[in-house]
Amino acid sequence: MSRRSDEYLRGVPMKPYDLVREGLIALAFVAALVIVLALVFKSPDAPTVRGEDVAKNHPLAYMKTVADLLSGESALESYGPPYTADKENIQRIVGPGPAAILGVTLPIDAEKDLVIAPLERAAVLNKDVAAALAVWKAASEDARKAWTKAYGDALDKAQEAGGFVKVPLGDYGPVPVMAMGMLDLGRAGLLEGALTSGEGLPYTLDGTKAMLFFQEDVDQGIAYGYDMHGSQWGITHEVGNLPGPWWLWPYAIWYQIPPLTTAPNADVIVGSLMLLFFLLLLFAPFIPVLKHLPKWIPIYRIVWRDWYRRKE
Amino acid sequence: MSLTEKAQGYVKDKLTLEDALPTKLPVYLNSMAYLFGVLTLCSLAMLIASGIVMAFFGPNWYHVAPAGKFFNSIHFWAAQLFFAFMMLHMATKYFLGAFRDGRGKTWMIGVLTFGCAIFSGFTGYLSASNWSAQWHAVEAKDAMNAMGIGAFFYTTNYSQMLTLHVAVLPAFIVVLVALHVLLVRHEGPVKPYPPKGEARE
User: Fold this and answer.
1) What ipTM does this complex have?
2) Rounded distance between C-alpha atoms, residue A132 and residue A123, angstroms
3) Last-in-domain residue among A219, A244, A265
4) Residue A87 lies in domain
5) Which of A209, A243, B15, B42 would staple A195 via disulfide (CB 3.0–4.6 Å)?
6) What is this structure's pTM?
């Protein structure tokens, strides 16, 4: 043994040990356990939420998503870094807030990137959409806001019928045609491609825009159904009865405790708390109370009971 | 003295073969609590083995082909066991005061491994290309963005999460675990707290 080990263990009785044998037995045990669990319980694989499914099965929710993004008042519009330069939603405890330091690194304009850009692709195939887009682009900001506001209000009273949406008559300018253009993109299964292509490659490496498209009501509603919403311990839950990443419970629990349940800066408070706890854990051997705590809680006497029986 | 000679001296001094592959242990190591470390290592081995198979065939395979789904399930359950054994290992080592007698460095490397594993597990969930992955990406991005991490760690960027999960984070974990195990073997198991009646440390 090394000089250090020899010195440290001098006078301590030793017993024979076969590390390789123990390791092989442990590996066989874990392998068998994993294989049995995999065969019996399998793994979570609920399908992703895709534009095609939402457009075909929930066209009203799809249209509302489009109207919200087009209104210029979606949550994404004033999200702040890393997507937009808005500062009012930056979460902070003191100072400017961590998000403000690195700023906008992934600029996204909800209206232009998530609706107008895909519609410009649809316009190549659909002259009605092209004409509606031209009207939209030529219109004043006030006119656009009036159309999207009226159309959004009308969608609240609209009904689904045969996979389409019946909207009460009104002055919505080009918005209904644009919304239908988006719905058609979705029904054709082209929404994600229209959102994420055009990055200089014939394939997609980053699905951010497609992921952000349904992040509000559609995703939130589905998450509620799966018991995975933030107010339901969020991502620590898994679809069905399978275990999720339960090791994040110490993180998720804070979001269930008032005032963090509704605090607008809950993420930065919880994140800071977890960073603090991690540092406490990391430096536990050097922190006065933490390093002595095991001595005061006699769990060690259970683990070393044979040793103490021998010594006392 | 050359760097090679220094490295040789370091290994000779710090890690003899008898330390690395011991044939005897102190008698106070007589509890199931000492198994959590090796069980964590075995779960990691299962994770790496199943992960290599999954990486070889790709996401389209492990979410479609029956064999792929089986390996996906192996990986999923190995991760569950890995975290369960690791947290039991960490908790027992803490309550044994295993960081005493100059073992603080070993503890810290273990905690850093735990931190890396959290991010590795997280990127794994984001790489699963199912509803859970989609929801994790959308839901967790707000927390990342609020902490400023979202300026370079894009939970919604599948390729970034996948490459972090299959290359970068496992490399960190393997290096940290190797260091941790080498230190554990070099230092030997910490002695029990003194029995009643003997002077406290």
Assistant:
1) 0.93
2) 9
3) A219
4) 51-219
5) A209
6) 0.92
